[in-house]
Amino acid sequence: MASSSFPIINMEKLNGDERSATMELLHDACVNWGFLEVINHGISIELLDKIEKVTKDHYKNVMEKRFHEAASKTLEGVVSDKNDIDWESTFFIKHLPESNLSELPELNEEYKNLMKEYVVELEKLAEQLLDLLCENLGLEKGYLKKALSGSKGPQFGTKVGNYPPCPRPDLVKGLRAHSDAGGIILLFQDDQVSGLQFLKDGEWIDVPPMKHSIVVNFGEQIETITNGKYKSIMHRVLTQPEGTRMSVASFYNPGSDAVIYPAPTLLEKEKVDESQVYPKFVFGEYFKYYETTKFQEKEPRIEAFKALQKNAVAAA
């Protein structure tokens, strides 16, 4: 299902008379949608075009043959769409606290240099967006960045994905439904081939492909810090019979030793009942549990950490 009112935030409008209306639109997108697209975000179109070209070239030259060899075997054993495989070709790049680009020999120097340039711009955008969220929530500037930092700063990485055409889109998802574990996610996606959907009010809604936009959604740590006000939303990627969808998804996540808990200012302001308060935990511990339960509903994860916190308090 497509939605004509999918939230699109023009970030240029934050600098003039339309600032307050744009901030309201952003807040509504965070509260009621959990997904949005930003345009005029400050990352140059030329840079995005280059990232798209090198990503598609790399898939074609390095990964496509390998994917198809494995994929033909993958489909043989699949009899229903309740399987545990994803029809995607991916690799991961770590940026912060330390880059692993030098350990990725299959990436050529042009790709590595462009990715370094892109990540600097993306980090600025992530932190700008976090501060806009702070403003809308009534938190001091820099609160969310600090909350996600831990002792070594945030963890920042990119999952580069390609979703090739699939002969049986009825049997295999490109990526199974899940919500993200971390902080804020910034996605540069294909503007020709669709497939990304998120769950809203029980319906799957398409994230419209749009040239040079960045799709934004939030992880379970932002949901925890905002005590459920800004939610981490279930999403998935459908396979298509034609066209390869490109996805460059960057995750601005807490440091592994960051202690995550609801912002006290928000709890005071909203006068939240104690039973409705999200738990406090160390992100690294949460993420370990998330890795084993990624494709399940997030609520039991949050409840499990609430129970752990309760038991720790009782034992103290």
From TrEMBL:
Family annotation (PROSITE patterns): FE2OG_OXY
Q: What class of enzyme is it?
A: oxidoreductase
Q: Which residues form a coiled coil?
A: 104-135
Catalysed conversion reaction: 1-aminocyclopropane-1-carboxylate + L-ascorbate + O2 = ethene + L-dehydroascorbate + hydrogen cyanide + CO2 + 2 H2O
Q: Which GO terms describe its biological process?
A: ethylene biosynthetic process
| EC number of this enzyme | 1.14.17.4
Pathway field: Alkene biosynthesis; ethylene biosynthesis via S-adenosyl-L-methionine; ethylene from S-adenosyl-L-methionine: step 2/2
Q: Which GO terms describe its molecular function?
A: 1-aminocyclopropane-1-carboxylate oxidase activity; L-ascorbic acid binding; metal ion binding
Q: Which residues form the Fe2OG dioxygenase domain?
A: 154-254
Task: Could you list this entry's UniProt keywords, alphabetically sorted.
Answer: Coiled coil, Ethylene biosynthesis, Iron, Metal-binding, Oxidoreductase, Vitamin C
Q: Which InterPro entries match?
A: DIOX_N, IPNS-like_FE2OG_OXY, IPNS-like_sf, Oxoglu/Fe-dep_dioxygenase_dom, Plant_2OG-oxidoreductases
Q: Extract the Gene3D superfamilies matched here.
A: B-lactam Antibiotic, Isopenicillin N Synthase, Chain (2.60.120.330)
Family membership noted in the UniProt record: Belongs to the iron/ascorbate-dependent oxidoreductase family.
What this protein is called in its record is aminocyclopropanecarboxylate oxidase
